[in-house]
Amino acid sequence: MMRYSEMFLPTTKETPSDAEILSHQLMLRSGMIRKLAGGIYTYLPLGYRVIRKVENIVREEMNRAGAQEVFMPAVQPAELWVESGRWEMYGKELLRVRDRHNRDYCIGPTHEEVITALVRDEIQTYRQLPMNLYQIQTKFRDEIRPRFGIMRSREFGMKDAYSFDATEQSAEESYQKMFDAYIRIFTRFGLTFRPVEADSGTIGGSFSHEFMVTADSGEDGMIYCTSCDYAANLEKAEIARPEEKHDVDYSPMEEVHTPDVRTIEEVSAFLGVAPEDVVKTMIFMSDGEPVAVLVRGDEDINETKLRNYLGCDSLELAMDDTILEVTGSPRGFAGPIGIKSRIIADYSLMNMKDFVVGANKEDHHIKNCNSGRDFEIQNYADLRLIREDDPCPRCEGKLRIARGIEVGHVFKLGVKYSKAMNATFLDSDGKEKLMIMGCYGIGIGRTAAACIEQSHDEDGIIWPMSIAPFQVIITPVNINDEKLSKTAEELYDSLVADGIEVILDDRNERAGVKFKDADLIGIPIRITVGSKSLAEGKVEVRFRKSGEVEKIPLETVRGFITKTINDGLKCA
RNA sequence: CGGGGCGUAGCGCAGCCUGGCAGCGCGCCUGCUUUGGGAGCAGGAUGUCGCAGGUUCAAAUCCUGCCGCCCCGACCA
Predict the structure, then answer these.
(1) Which nucleotide lies at the shortest CA–C1' distance from A221?
(2) What are the E-state strand segments in A166-242?
(3) Distance A508 CA to B31 C1' (A)
(4) How far is Cα A237 from Cα A133, in angstroms, rounded to an integer?
(5) 10-residue averages of pLDDT along chain A (572 residues)
(6) Closest protein residue to B74 (Cα–C1')
(7) What is the spatial distance, in angstroms and rounded to an integer, between the CA atom of A16 and the C1' atom of B25?
(8) How far: A39 CA to B76 C1' (Å)?
(9) Domains of chain A (ranges plus CATH)?
(10) Which nucleotide is nearest to A533 (CA to C1')?
């Protein structure tokens, strides 16, 4: 397959200073990738071998799940995006370009528009459904801040699949098929991962799961229950509605002078009460309308939940002048009493009594405030950020927080795009209906990076057999020793003949250099051909992961290697 | 977009404060020795000091502008 001496494989001893996380450092050091510009990378031969293996596993499982591979254009006409409404909505992440005729295009960050247009034009009847089409293609998202190498780059490889169904039930099945395929895919990569319930964001739709690879370096937070299956993205993580207790034994309300006391910490310290006895009043602008959102002092608002609850497009904290207008006081003294806006409150308010709020008056707060008596809360909702040890919404267990890398997501899109772009079919009842869609993504490069995050040691990468760039590396200890190099060459030829992915380290380097490189690039099996063992007619088979070494007689190496690789592919 | 940092040989960095021969380590090339965990000795090559302008007898060094990269934040999914 490959001789090391001929391969373009520039490894380095030193770690590049601008690589922060381990997978990025190791990808650079092992000669897998090189940066061309911010968030834009070239895959070198070793890196591209890994990428192709990841793609092929994804491809196999997508095909197995009944999806068909297509290949769509990277450059997409603006009209499609105008039609779906995303030319306006998508924002600066969409890289827009003009052609020589001054027509607008974008470099596809995703392909809902293209696929919907295609299917709309070609599919007429329910008899042609369900249909699931996918592609593996380079996307471009002009991230504000690309980082962590290939983990969060601007240009990146992605598998994206789109399902079209005639009925809700069929759409559920399509979703489930993809969900199951994803489980198989990430299992084959040897990853420790977890599907978590997720917010469906601006892509829209009703339901979605993210596939999170657990890693401390992960950019995403997730929570999981210690005693049931519940797991969710931090932003999505639900909090159950507490039981309402009716306690009407209220103390009389009291206004107190609190000069220059603004934050929850300052208020609770100044008044000698716990943050749990203070209510935070935050003024948001929801599509231009002010809304007062109340949450217990020790909790934080989850803006994603709030946005979903309000069903608004834009949501931001109000500016100082708006606060003054709505509350009549400067920032830091907002409270619900007499406020000129709608008031909603998080569940954490439900059983609070005699709490502290801002007085809507500079340098004043109010003690012993109570909802119902002193002001009215229009609605209670689940609006706060989850915390470690919060109760599980599904069982009696407690929630834990972990970090993860989002390697895949599955969305139920519903009719968002079919409606906007008029993708209909004729149903058996003779009526025209909207196709029900789903979309399913896997980050190819990110998945490879996640594998490294989860599987490495101080010497380098430890690839699982399924995506290792080579399954075996043969290392003759000294290339100038005729016997060693001849044995290594013969072994190499026979393994190649067996269809094994093997690289022969035929460089005229000292053994230590070769060992270090073999470890760094993470080849699962190393066959060392050295004079001591060879005198006994044996070679040494060393496993990258465990470091264990077995001396195997030359005659039986081929069978041993084949079996080991097959076992490795099965369990990985 | 705001804050901070960086840009000097292929890579990692020093030199800049206090202007005066462009340096170190790794890598690379040649030769000899060496050959089981990143060898030793000897010799050698390699720079628009990010770009442009300014100050100065003299600029990697000081000043101005621009570009690129990294980190933190805001933003987005």
Answers:
(1) B77
(2) 193-197, 207-214, 220-225, 231-233
(3) 16
(4) 31
(5) 90 87 93 90 95 97 98 95 89 88 93 96 96 96 88 93 96 96 96 87 66 90 90 85 81 90 86 90 85 90 84 78 85 88 90 91 92 88 88 89 92 92 96 96 95 95 97 96 95 97 95 96 97 96 97 97 93 60
(6) A144
(7) 15
(8) 16
(9) 11-220+401-452 (3.30.930.10), 254-381 (3.90.960.10), 470-571 (3.40.50.800)
(10) B36
